[in-house]
Amino acid sequence: MNEKILYGYSALFDKPNDVLKAAKSIAEKGFEKYDVNTPYPLHGMNKAMKLKPSKLGYVSLIVGLSGALAAILTMWWMNAVDYPIVYGGKPYFSFPAYIPVVFEVTVLSASIATVLTMLFIFFKFPNNSHPLQGTDYLKQVSSDKYGIIILADDKKFNEEEIESLFKELNAVTISPIYWDNEEINHKHKIFEPKFVIFLIAVAILNSGAVYFVYNKLLYMQPFNWMMNQQRQNVQQKSLIYSDGFGMRKPVEGTIARGHLPYQFVGNPDLAGEKLINPIPVSKASLKLGQEKFDTYCSPCHDYHGTGQSRLRGQFPNPPSLHSDKVRNWSDGRIFAVITEGQNVMPSYSTQLTEDERWAVINYIRVLQRAMNAKESDLK
Ligand code: HEC
Prior knowledge:
Helix content is 48%, strand content 6%. The chain has 14 helices and four strands. It is elongated.
């Protein structure tokens, strides 16, 4: 194939005003497939060429919003539907915690979509050749000339007419531009094995060099005075104490300030007899009790105390809290169970303060009354 295929007709102008005027009259004549090339952006060119705003923004908007929606749905599905876990009594679907992720995913998807759309749809990647590449025209317009090219596939394309139009518009050079035959018949050069291997080699060399320089050659320990100080780590042996244990227990008989030790260890019935609930029933204490019950007790005892555990058999189901036994227990007796645990149920004395334990008991009483409502309660 030696026949040349015409790509378009190009004209070069000396002055920016000339090319602006030319672009304007070409647009007015109804040409659609033409382009202007200038060494720097010209004010008013968009208007002269009657260019519409780029559609790329819509792609960014739609993909960005879809990314945000996908992030919200994913987190909602994972946290509220598929694997709900109570974190510190917060709701499963807790939007404030999702904002950073939603923001990041929105920005990430919008920017990736923008770049990929630009590359693959607007620039027709992997094609990286263009008939203007290497032409004298392109050299001139990247130096000090202003060019216009009308493409051969424009509906109104006609060589003679365009030539006379360009002359009329004060063009200094007018020349046809042809497709490069070799370029047309060649597969995408970007996939040539030599080039691909070269790219991979550059990537490996670069990352290796960066790794070496930053992690070996120039490595500086950040805050080394903290990293290298003497200290006793958890579970580590100590040379100071004769028993060799690094983790020490408080001296026997230690009593924390403002705290009386529990006096009924191993004797829940006595606790039931002697202890009196000091927390009055109020809206606030019931709310606190409900919060703590839902967080610490409901995984096993269920939100209503029925004993239908959410642990799906991974821990023995507890008995109902609505049995006559528990309903007839005094508050102090239940306090003993929460404080010391009972058989397989562990103690909750480290998770709940004493006041919180009493508030939980008040709330259990509410559940019990609700489940065994009397005629008079309904009035
Ligand atoms: C890890 C699961 C689990 C959690 C969490 C749990 N319990 Fe229990 N609870 C049990 C089991 C199992 C039993 C039955 C123990 C036994 O065999 O005596 C039980 C027994 C009880 C009993 C005695 C019931 C009876 O009939 O003897 C009370 C009262 C009780 N729990 C209250 C609570 C409260 C209040 C909380 C929250 C602070 C709580 N439990 C948290 C598993 C749990």
